[in-house]
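User: Please predict structures.

Assistant: First:
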Amino acid sequence: MHTAAFVEALLSRSIVHLIECDATLRTSDDPETIHEARVAVRRLRSELRTFAPVLVPEWANALREKLRWLSDELSRARDADVLLERLRNDIANLSETDRNHAEDTLEPFVRERIEAYARIHTMLQDRRCAALLSELREHVIPSQNAHSTLFERIASDGEKPAKVLARPLLAEAWKKLRKRVRRGGDNPSDAELHRIRIEAKHVRYALEACSPILSRSARILAKKLEKLQNVLGEEHDAVRTCERLQQAALVPESHKVVHELIALETTAAETARSTARKAWRKVNNAAELKSSH
């Protein structure tokens, strides 16, 4: 398959998925709906980044920025869901007496979640959202020559075989991830681990996008990266939960509970950090196996 046809099909699939997520968002407040929509936006932004070298730069950059707004609003709601879920799981491990004070601890975070979901509904009614969805629909509607307007966004190398194009793009993404890991050293900060996670996710999305034209070893690497990403996500969520508990203006009666919750989340972060080292070694081994084929 030529590059132009491959990239057109790939971006079309991601755009259609995002449009479907929008339709579901308008009728459901289910947390999984928020999560799926956020993943759809992030995956599309990642694909636009991966294939940027062969796309019209002005178009690809502008679309990524428009999608950033959607991603930020969806992330606000998703983060509120994750925080509450973690706290409720932690509270279940406290003594009965401490659990009785737990509602005071949860109250400000419950309010934040309500506000975040309200912002989602406001966003869906915003003109920018309507304009963006209209633009996305136009991109996936075939014209008279059986191509969508996405075909016109392929700036160069459209006639090259997709596999030939994919190799250097994936190699560049992997190079950035390894550089980020080396920069973190033996004891990376929480912020550095979060940046490593973002790069790992990008490489994983790129590998998954190109999976139809890649070897089995590349798909194995994508699975290893997903596990690394999940472990680093656990570390980030635990650290963020600790920060939110420390920042929240809570009633004095809940201070003991808060300290216990922070202790639980600190342990979770430390465990995830240790597991991440092993996960990275497995990613590295899988990458070496891929490069040998």
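Second:
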Amino acid sequence: MDNRTEKRRIGDLGESLACDWLKKQGFRILERNYLTKFGEIDIIGQKSGQIVFFEVKTVTSTVAKAIVDKRGNISGLTNNVTRESVVGDYYEPEDNIHPWKLKRLARTIEIYLSDKDIDEEVDWQLDSLAIYLDQEGRLLRVERLEDIF
């Protein structure tokens, strides 16, 4: 029996699709769901010697419908997405990465680099991946916001 919530199942699917997408972009996946007492990093990848920490936000088609209105109207929002979460004509999943979340991610990144004995001279950054799914859970698109701090 699967005890995960619907939100967690969608998040897990989004993270799996994000890994597939990153591999196609030339990344090697180093870790998934790296967890410390301060927080979790969804995906850690490496490409061309640079380590990239990814925060993944998955959006389902009910939200995508709200952002695709051809007249520019915002409609069909779900209970967990408010008009304040919608910028212009579209929803920005990375808007859910709040300052307190960034602080926790920074601490988790520090712990990862220390735990793995990674030289402080190694180039790294934190990126956000927005994963958009249709109603059947198929990938519609991926948007990457690079170097968010």
